[in-house]
Amino acid sequence: MSIDINLPEPIRISLAGPADFVALLKPRVMSLVVFTALVGMVAAPQNLHPVLSFLALIAIAVGAGASGAFNMWYDADIDALMSRTKNRPIPSGAVTPGETLVFGAILSGFSVLTLGFVANWLSAGLLAFTIFFYAVIYTMWLKRSTPQNIVIGGAAGAFPPMIGYAAMSGTVTLESCVLFLIIFIWTPPHFWALALVKSADYAAAAIPMMPNVKGHDRTRLEILLYTVVLAPVGTLPWMLGFAGVTYGVVSIFGGVAMLALSWRVFTIRTGPAVNKTAMQLFGGSIVYLFVLFAVLLLEHVVPAVAGLAGWIA
Amino acid sequence: MPQNLPPRITLTPEQAKARRARNIAIGLSVGFLVVVFYAVTIIKLGPAVFQKGG
């Protein structure tokens, strides 16, 4: 097999497979986006055909993946310096930065337009803003310039349930804002717990994460303060009447568990348990958010399932 | 080979395999988009689109 083409030496011919391009989408982040967006969709008034709802969810997922590709394109230089990210497709040489940029741009365009066509242009606009916010505001600007990077940038991760809600209902309501707020307040203690353990990595890449700029003790204090705010915010869906008693009980116990984990991070500052407690908070925060949204999902789906069973009978 | 032809690139088996895999993935994606836009059109227009006019 040969092609007639005259290129300067050395000629680079891609060995990238589909899996490398899928890796550019940050599949694990995408799965969290799909999950939180789904909860936003289920919590919303159901004004959309089920097939269109499914396609809207895919569009939101692809949009999130596109922003991940933009992030990997811009951050390839620092990704190569950190153990956690050095095997990503660009630093590993599987995909070129140019291919990644074009890939992200095409997926962004198609995901936003598709969401607009299948759902509505409010949700498409929110998705476009989220991609812009993550790629430009967070990745290009905040990440390398301020220790508040993940505080403000966390908004990008908090938008998906709001987009899902808007896709179904065509509106932004207090309920979707509360879902946004939970993820927004959850993000700093979640990421700073990891940053405490990986601070040497971030220092090597000159990323001004909170532990590198303000010190580990100040980071521990801020983690505790954000968790003190997070615990009551997590109960808001129940307090405001959007969620049932099950959610109320789970969110209270979850909030107490998060406070206990962050208190341990705040008080244990020396010895071999330091990294262990930080990683327990990091892992615990993922479980906390997952459980809160899973209960919200079940509370909305189970009555619908029960209704469906009654309708079939 | 005539002298005025540009140099030719011969793909290695790995390069050819990777290109084929990429082409299949792109083809499936485009096919999926066709199905998506067809389905969206039918759903948005409603089932009446299949009824013949009198």
Short description:
With 313 residues, chain A is an all-alpha fold. Chain A has helices at residues 18-23, 27-43, 50-74, 76-79, 97-118, 121-142, 149-169, 174-197, 199-204, 210-213, 216-239, 245-267, 273-312, and one strand at residues 2-4. The longest helix of chain B has 33 residues, at 13-45.
Overview features:
heterodimer; A: 313 residues; mainly alpha; Tetracycline Repressor, domain 2; 13 helices; flat; B: 54 residues; 1 helix; 6% strand; elongated
Q: Would you kindly provide a written description of the structure presented here, covering whatever features stand out?
A:
- The complex is a heterodimer of chains A (313) and B (54).
- Chain A has two domains: 17-172, Orthogonal Bundle (Tetracycline Repressor, domain 2), CATH 1.10.357.140; 177-307.
- Chain A is 76% helix and 1% strand.
- Chain A has 13 helices and one strand, in the order E-H-H-H-H-H-H-H-H-H-H-H-H-H.
- Chain A has helices at 18-23, 27-43, 50-74, 76-79, 97-118, 121-142, 149-169, 174-197, 199-204, 210-213, 216-239, 245-267, 273-312; one strand spanning 2-4.
- In chain A, helix 3 (50-74) runs parallel beside helix 6 (121-142) and helix 8 (174-197) runs antiparallel to helix 11.
- The model of chain A has no long low-confidence stretch (mean pLDDT 91).
- Chain B is mainly α and 54 residues long.
- In chain B, 61% of the residues lie in helices and 6% in strands.
- Chain A binds chain B through residues 1-7, 11, 13-18, 21, 49, 51-52, 55, 110, 114, 117-118, and chain B through 5-11, 14-16, 18-19, 21-22, 24-25, 33, 36-37, 39-40, 43.
- Strand 1 (2-4) of chain A pairs antiparallel with strand 1 (8-10) of chain B, so a sheet runs across the interface.
